Amino acid sequence: MKLETITELERFLNIQEQALGSDSPEVANTLTRLADLYFSKGLLEEAEALYRRALNIKEQSSGLHKIDIESTRQNLEKVLTRKRAPSQSRTPSSHVQWQTDSSTSLDAVPPSMALGWPSAFDQDKDKELEIELASIKHMMGLEHPQVADCLTRIADQYCRNKRYTEMEPVLQEALRIRERALGAEHPLVSSSLKNLARLYYFQKRYELSEPLFKRALSIRQKAYGKNHERYADVEEQYAKLLRKTGRALLAQDLDDHVKQVRSGRR
Questions:
Q1: Rg of the chain over all Cα atoms, to the nearest angstrom
Q2: Do the Cβ atoms of 155 and 165 come closer than 8 Å?
Q3: Which of 126, 173, 216, 235 has the highest count of CB atoms within 10 angstroms of its CB?
């Protein structure tokens, strides 16, 4: 099947996820192709999220060759290098897309947290996601992990349109499903915890955000160890919260560790 546009690949990706599961190596390959397209158009946030998710799947798939994993890693590094360049021209974006593990697009949430006005395209996207969610529930059951994956995509869509107040119950439901279906210590549970923690952080509800970040860190430490990029990803977010709540010295310690982890991956 010849798929050349972002829209075509996104539709194909949805079909693959429903048929093969969200952690299939074939899904990872499609994510990589989609990331390549976004990168070619200068949409760095979207490309980074897709490369990260593809890399996560490939790292957990024992049958894949190391060269394929390294290729995805190199593509991700190209995106990060481009993003670090201050003079780099970028396509305007009001959000940062999900991480590898279906994380929310909250890195650049405006402080006002005001509701946005969705475009016709976004309204169509909302309907598509609602249909997809209903279909997954019908085929897989109300408590299937793919329901949580779809809810996560819905939360991302809400974030794109600054509909932050609608995100909370959706993210809470995704977390609840993953905890029940996968167990409280599963890495995807840590992703849902991080998503909700970041939402609370940007809403300045720090007392709700902090315990979620801590729990996500605990899960990822057990799953990956402290010197893994996925641990550092949450650690970086938690450091921001510490700085906002007057604990700059501790935040600096975490930032230093994040830099060490990432420098070791290059």
A1: 18
A2: no
A3: 216
Query: Which of these, 9, 8, 1, 66, lies nearest to 33 by C-alpha position?
Result: 9
- Tokens coding 209: 């955000």
Return the H-helix or E-strand segment holding 186: none
Least confident of 1-5, 71-75, 103-107: 103-107
**CATH no. for 1-93:** 1.25.40.10
- The span from the CA of 104 to the CA of 167, in Å, is 10
- Report the chain's terminal Cα–Cα distance, integer Å: 35
Distance CA 35, CA 82 (A): 14
Spatial separation of the C-alpha atoms in residues 241 and 196, rounded to whole Å: 13
| 32-41 tens-digit pLDDT | 999 998 888 8
What DSSP designation does 61 have?
Answer: -
